[in-house]
Design goal:
The chain is globular. 30% of the residues are buried. It has helices spanning 9-20, 49-65, 96-102, 104-109, and strands at 24-30, 40-45, 72-74, 81-85, 89-94. The longest helix is centred in the middle third of the chain and has 17 residues, at 49-65. It is built from four helices and five strands, in the order H-E-E-H-E-E-E-H-H. The protein is an alpha+beta fold and 119 residues long. The chain has one domain (9-110): Beta Polymerase, domain 2 (2-Layer Sandwich). The protein is 35% helix and 23% strand. Helix 1 (9-20) runs antiparallel to helix 2 (49-65).
């Protein structure tokens, strides 16, 4: 994925794997200071249940091969929405209609309410 400065090795591994497995609409979000859960969140889509499962499996193998151990995984059995917790990076892989319904990127990219000024 060109155009995004992947500051962490885990994020670089995630982005390369998603790109390699032809995940669609890959959006990395810096959540440092917004959440104690992780430093980055990555949201991506697969074209179907099978593609979502394949993208997730490919990513899990890439993380293990990169020495990142076994990431925690939720949702792989249904492959509508697979969440992979890789420590500093949380990855969500959705089928397009599920992604549109939950719209996580909008929630996490919203401006901080404290920074808004009321006139």
């Amino acid at each position: 994925m060109s155009g995004y400065d992947a500051a962490s090795p885990v994020l670089e591994t995630v982005l390369a794997s998603l790109d390699d497995s032809k995940a669609e609409n890959i959006i990395p979000i810096d959540i440092q200071g917004k959440s104690a859960l992780a430093d980055h969140m990555v949201i991506a889509s697969g074209r179907s249940h099978r593609h979502v499962a394949a993208v997730a499996d490919h990513l899990l193998k890439a993380l293990k091969d990169a020495g990142r151990g076994s990431a925690r995984v939720e949702g792989l059995s249904t492959a509508d929405w697979v969440l992979i917790d890789a420590g500093d990076v949380i990855v969500h892989v959705f089928r397009p209609e599920i992604r549109e319904f939950y719209n996580l990127e909008k929630m996490w990219q919203a401006p901080d309410l404290e920074e808004e000024t009321v006139h």
